[in-house]
Amino acid sequence: MADHRFAGEWMKDDMVLEPYVTPETIHKLESFKMTDEDIVFAAYPKTGITWAQELVWLVCNNGDIDKARSVPLDSRVVYIEYKEGGIITGLEMLQERPHPYMMKTHLRSETYLSQINEGKVKIIIIIRNPKDTLVSMYHFYRMHRGLGHFKGTWNDFFELFKAKHLLYGDYFRWYSSWLQHKDKPNVMLVKYEDMHHKMSDVINDVSTFLGKSLSKPVTADVIQHLTFDSMRQNDMVNFSNDAVFNVDISPFMRKGKVGDWKNYFSEEQSSFVDKLYKDMIEAFGVILEFE
Ligand code: A3P
């Protein structure tokens, strides 16, 4: 096994703070068999993975909003590397279930190289502009018990980012790992900002990618169901009952905007991110919207 894929190595390297992920889980994931009906959602934290999961689940389930409103999203889509209840991982939970699986991961692509190369599983990468992602993550750090309810200022948080010392590692390194696979036939890229500005196109593209189709009236209902206000009030997706989060400090569905970063970033911080964005995201031909 190549050194760079060994969990202990690259985690230490980026100082990834991820209490749930053990080298043993990584090894199991590397050889985990996936079928062509399975879907993996791959996203850096706070880039809209919850939104994308709800969308894709509805596309795959003929827009069954009643079911979506009665079964928590985290039991419809399994967080594969997470230790559920501190006892077993999502991966172990799946072994009790029949395919097809819907799985969510925040791990970089190195762990999934064999599945990516086999070309069976469908992979949906979700990306959001780095500035809004960081602001969202700052508030996530504040509301997350496991992260000690981060007490620092925005500037303190930005220093953690610069030191590449955030949950699941550095945003830019994370996306360079996944974006190199974005043009493979079994991989699709979904942008948070597109879900904002052209949701119906995103639903069509996802449907085509997965070989599904929703009627026009069902699509209209799904779009309504996926609005920020609707999702914020929906306990199946808003994590309001998750003991890990203190939603009184900051709700999981916080603002849901494109461009909130302008309320936080200094000019210097903005230029710092702009340069990395050009070198490490645009370099893959990926253009993101910042407002
Ligand atoms: P903000 O903190 O900027 O509000 P993730 O699911 O990857 O953790 O991402 C969470 C972010 O997605 C939060 O961003 C949340 O508000 C936003 N989000 C979730 N559902 C949304 C929706 N329906 N419309 C807009 N933004 C949404």
TrEMBL record:
Family matches, as Pfam families: Sulfotransfer_1 (PF00685)
Protein origin, superkingdom: Eukaryota
Residues annotated as domain Sulfotransferase: 36-282
GO MF, one example: sulfotransferase activity
Keywords: Transferase
PANTHER family: SULFOTRANSFERASE SULT (PTHR11783)
Family: Belongs to the sulfotransferase 1 family.
Protein name: Sulfotransferase domain-containing protein
Organismal lineage: Eukaryota, Metazoa, Spiralia, Lophotrochozoa, Annelida
